[in-house]
Amino acid sequence: MRNDAVAMLQKRSGFTLIEVLIALTILAGGLFVLVNTHYSALNLHLITEEEVDNRSLLESILGRAELGIAAGELSGGGDFGSRYPGYSWSYEAEQVGEEGGSPLLSDTLFYRVTATLMKSGGESKSLEFFSFSNSEMETIQQRP
Known about the structure:
4-stranded antiparallel sheet, alpha+beta, 3 helices, 144 residues, 24% strand
């Protein structure tokens, strides 16, 4: 009787084929979810990195445009050198609001500026903003 009980336990110990297949299916599903999540995270990282570069370059163009306007240059352009090959920039400024302004702002000129970041593939991003120039800015620029 004891031998029969041991034989029964030995036959029942272990996993059946269906249990192994179910476990492998669950494992494969989990791996699929993990790999898909990893791929999505990498893709988001690449998109974010490109957007951060674009925003940083647009902010750089904005600064160059403001300095150019203060110096009296209403348009300009160039590239970013070897660090960002294939990227170029330009800006165009148009004077706005000349007539009937406040007497306090009589020496202040306002500009509508369009800054454009261009990529080698023909894709471009533009940012429109307002800037101003007055006699104080010209005085600061002329100091040595």
